[in-house]
Specification:
alpha+beta; four-stranded mixed sheet; 16 helices; 8% strand; disordered C terminus
Length: 309
């Protein structure tokens, strides 16, 4: 840790697209005691973590701040900035986290969805959707690097099928040889060999489901009765039953779950000239529910010790 001149620091490239929060800066400036050290990217003198503290130091009239130095690449410095600003202090907004994930996808396309999600404080499914829309990814890469630093195939089912084909062509080949050629682990090849010997598909059933066309795999359907059973389970949850907000949520969900069972009857009662407006309302509410689901997933807690920021 060393003192750094405030005038030499830059806040460019921050994941906070709207800049620092003035109220937070004022609160820090008025607080007693020394400000905690900031983290600086030495080659560029950009603030990785502590932009609010730098503004507070200026407001106090300080010419220097205590800083820790980071000498990695600018791309890695940005990832570290996102990690730290999501884990503590004034949290990044959901829009900032999504924008940060898109930038990390561009600079670290080889990283797995889970690794990027952990860094940005998002759900892995959200990152997967952002990756699908991205045009920056190297589509030739069939492996991605996880949070443990190991590289794994993107399509594990394809690797298993290739391993099965290679085993059929050369039954005496070693596990390591097949694993190297198929891009999977020796343990996976051993499992494929065992499954083939038993007359089974080399790809387990749960993985085969992921091989279906995207539209089919995304078609999430559930009956009104299944929703009702799920709701009854939630009603037995003490965390919901014994709080006013929890009971309000359960009542709200109960009204909507009950109405789903009556949709067919309502649809038959809609006159032809009103079908289009009602359909528009249905699509609008579907989009709103989808946004709620994304919000619930994206605000889930992240295991920062395992994130390997």
């Amino acid at each position: 840790m060393e003192p750094v001149a405030v005038a030499d620091l830059s806040a460019a490239g921050s994941p906070r697209r709207a800049g620092e929060d003035e109220a937070h800066v004022e609160a820090l400036a008025e607080a007693d005691g020394e400000l905690p050290p900031i983290l600086v990217h030495v080659p560029s003198m950009r603030v990785i973590d502590g932009a609010h503290r730098v503004r507070a130091a200026r407001a106090r009239g300080n010419t220097h701040v205590a800083a820790r130095c980071y000498r990695g690449s600018e791309a890695d410095a940005f990832v570290l900035s996102v990690c730290l600003n999501t884990a503590h202090g004034l949290p990044l907004t959901r829009a900032d986290r999504r924008a940060a994930a898109q930038r990390i996808l561009a600079s670290h396309a080889q990283w797995s969805n889970r690794r990027i999600a952990a860094a940005a404080g998002l759900a892995a499914g959200t990152v997967a959707a952002l990756r699908e829309r991205s045009t920056d990814e190297d589509r030739q890469s069939n492996k991605r690097e996880g949070r443990d630093g190991r590289r794994r195939p993107v399509d594990a089912a394809a690797g298993r099928r290739l391993a099965g084909k290679l085993l059929a062509e050369d039954p005496q080949a070693s596990l390591r040889s097949i694993a190297r050629r198929a891009g999977v682990s020796p343990a996976t090849v051993q499992d494929v060999r065992r499954r083939l010997a038993a007359g089974d598909d080399p790809v387990p059933a749960q993985r085969r489901a992921r091989e279906r066309p995207a539209a089919e795999s995304r078609a999430w359907q559930v009956s009104a009765e299944e929703l009702r059973q799920s709701l009854e389970q939630m009603k037995r949850d003490p965390a919901l039953r014994f709080s006013e907000t929890g009971r309000g949520l359960l009542r709200w969900l109960d009204r909507h779950a009950g109405g789903m069972g009556e949709w067919a009857e309502h649809a038959r009662s809609v006159p032809s000239h009103s079908a289009s407006p009602v359909a528009n309302f249905a699509r609008m509410y579907a989009a709103a529910w989808s946004d709620l689901a994304a919000l619930l997933e994206d605000d889930s807690p992240v295991d920062w010790e395992a994130a390997r920021c």
